[in-house]
Design a protein that fits this description.
Helices cover 76% and strands 0% of the residues. By secondary structure, it is an all-alpha fold. The longest helix is centred in the middle third of the chain and has 37 residues.
């Protein structure tokens, strides 16, 4: 039985770290290349922020109406069916989140290595060891207890917010700018609407992650009231940070400079602070990596719990330590998968396109459950007093429409990644049947055997 140990501030900081990972330090360069003009660049970030805020409001109501552990899986299973929930979640739970976490750990280690190690020791093996150490340390802190993981999360999230704001303000107040930099554009071969759509792929990747917070509904005190607050406050902080840092990138580098930068944050810091700026960005990326990893380790095992309760995972995944409130086997399983994933990483850009194809489709399906929950409450004449998304049903419908547009956009512009995503989605069906059989209660197995006799 889960006992609520987290408060609103804890979950707000988890929202911040689930969204602000490594993406904002790299994806602006991809958005700049796709959009080509400052107007379209900022249109993509502003519109993406507004649409994401609508999504946050939608998920705030879903979380308030359905405050269950592993709600991201369970609400689909109960609103539609277990097969759909499993097929949409299995790749995210076992591959994408673990691979993304491993990738973030490796990137964080790459930027910390030059800060703490002498030049002769900056080898790929030492970088890998540092990434492994990051995962192991966070595993230990979360194994101690969910409140220990939350304290770690609060420190990491506040630190990354402060560093992002410091870099943004330094860039905005810097004299390293001019009209020729700010007005420069890139040559585009696409119509404006297609360029904007391509930019949206990376923008929504950067804004994603907040929806996973509903997995902690049972861990949050007075969840029906506080979960909406945490999701909304967290996303407002993220949107504010993103707009400020992108203004700083553009003011210092201009769109051509951003599009050619491998790490746009590092180029901005170098222009503003000189060689010492690289250390600031390295520290910010390292803290962002740690925060993102810790947030995954805190919330993802709750999805294992929901799947085990639905008999799509073995029962051992739902065992909880009553003192620490930790799913010890689930947490260690996740950590082991994350450590193994470090050996099978691909480029960051491919991860973006692969993740967005499955993620946007899955988020759209989960978001659509708001219509099911409302209809069910109406039939039962429930006296619901919790948070309600404004503009229902228009705003949630628009949010779902944009998510499906992103899915189609990736399908058209990145067919290879979309094909791989589709294959993983389809592979969920036989895996679901196998897991159902594996997780079948002992009594059911005995009855089947007796019936055959």
């Amino acid at each position: 039985m889960i006992k609520a140990r987290l408060n609103t501030f804890d979950v707000t900081m988890i929202v911040v770290s689930l969204v602000i990972g490594i993406g904002i330090f790299r994806t602006p360069a991809m958005v700049a290349s796709a959009t080509g003009t400052p107007a379209l660049f900022f249109a993509a970030w502003i519109a993406g922020g507004l649409i994401t805020l609508v999504g946050a409001l939608t998920f705030a109501e879903i979380g308030a109406r359905f405050p269950q552990p592993g709600s991201y899986y369970k609400v689909v299973a109960e609103s539609y069916n277990s097969l759909l929930a499993f097929m949409l979640n299995w790749a995210n739970v076992f591959i994408i989140n673990t691979a993304s976490g491993a990738g973030v750990a490796l990137i964080g280690a790459e930027y910390l290595t030059p800060v703490i190690l002498p030049e002769r020791a900056r080898t790929s093996s030492h970088t890998l060891l540092l990434a492994l150490a990051m995962v192991v340390v966070l595993l230990v802190l979360n194994y101690i207890g969910i409140k220990s993981g939350a304290r770690t999360q609060n420190i990491l999230s506040l630190s990354k917010i402060i560093l992002i704001l410091a870099l943004a303000l330094a860039g905005l107040l810097s004299g390293h700018s001019g009209p020729e930099i700010r007005q420069a554009s890139l040559e585009q071969n696409h119509p404006w609407w297609l360029a904007l759509g391509l930019g949206f792929i990376s923008v929504f990747f950067s804004y994603g992650g907040y929806q996973q917070t509903i997995n902690l509904g049972a861990d949050l005190k007075d969840s029906s009231r506080n979960l909406p607050r945490a999701v909304i406050f967290g996303m407002l902080i993220v949107i504010g940070c993103y707009l400020l840092i992108n203004l700083a990138y553009w003011r210092v580098l201009g769109l051509p400079g951003m599009s050619s930068a491998r790490l746009v944050a590092a180029e901005t810091a170098r222009a503003v602070f000189g060689p010492a700026g690289y250390r600031l960005v390295s520290l910010a990326i390292f803290l962002s990596a740690l925060g993102f990893l810790n947030a995954i380790l805190m919330q993802l095992p709750r999805t294992y719990l929901a799947m085990a309760e639905d008999r799509t995972l073995p029962g051992i995944f739902k065992k909880i330590n009553p003192r620490t409130q930790v799913q010890e086997f689930g947490l260690l399983f996740l950590g082991a998968f994350m450590l193994l994933s470090l050996a099978f990483l691909r480029t960051f850009e491919n991860i973006v396109n692969y993740v967005m194809f499955l993620d946007s489709l899955g988020i759209a399906v989960v978001a659509s459950t708001i219509f099911v929950l409302r209809a069910r409450a109406g039939r039962r004449a429930e006296n619901y007093r919790g948070f309600r998304v404004p503009g229902y049903p228009v705003l949630p419908a628009l949010f779902i429409f944009f998510l499906l547009s992103i899915t189609i956009n990736v399908l058209m512009s990145r067919p290879r990644q979309a094909l791989l995503g589709s294959i993983f989605l389809i592979l969920g069906f036989p895996l679901y049947l196998a897991m159902r059989r594996l997780a079948r209660p002992v009594n059911d197995t005995r009855k089947t055997a007796e019936g055959s006799e």
